[in-house]
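Sample pair:
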Amino acid sequence: MSHYFENDRNLKSEFRSISYKYDSFSFEFLSDNGVFSKDKIDYGSKALLESYLKDTKVSEKVLDVGCGYGFIGIVISKINNSYVDMIDVNKRALHLTKKNIDKYEVNARAFESDAYENVSGVYDTIITNPPIRAGKSKVIEILSGAYDYLKDDGKLFFVIRKDQGALSIKKILEEKYFIELIDRDKGFYIFKGVKKNG
């Protein structure tokens, strides 16, 4: 069984379309085998995105880490008119993201990066539904490492299930961020961290 954070070239393509609505906006995302939540919008990602949209009504520069087929980043770019970079290690996911970006003509780009390996510059917000199955150390690398790619007072939005260590991870991150639990939904904890300066 291959994981969504691995590149399995032997996996047969079976394209499908996934619908999502937010307020007056409607989306149809192209998805495929071998990517995270291939058949439906992931509940945690949806909760994370909608918490972000309630919190942030302005256009800003955003980095979507572990973008999958581009759901979070594309919706943010379309609704808030934000510039969004989207990164993933999964080549098939990035191919889908680029197709979805083209479809919605949003101000965004997608490129391959393992955590922040190929990222340069700084962002107003970094948003992520981190790959829990890749292990806790990878999750911490993504969440803690965001600090170096955020502007002063930049924000980190992330979602983790309570039973996957949400509170212990929150504690680790409090060294670098002012962390606030902004929503709880079916065991998913949505956090907003503001970068501590100095």
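Residues 1-5 have pLDDT under 50 and may be disordered.
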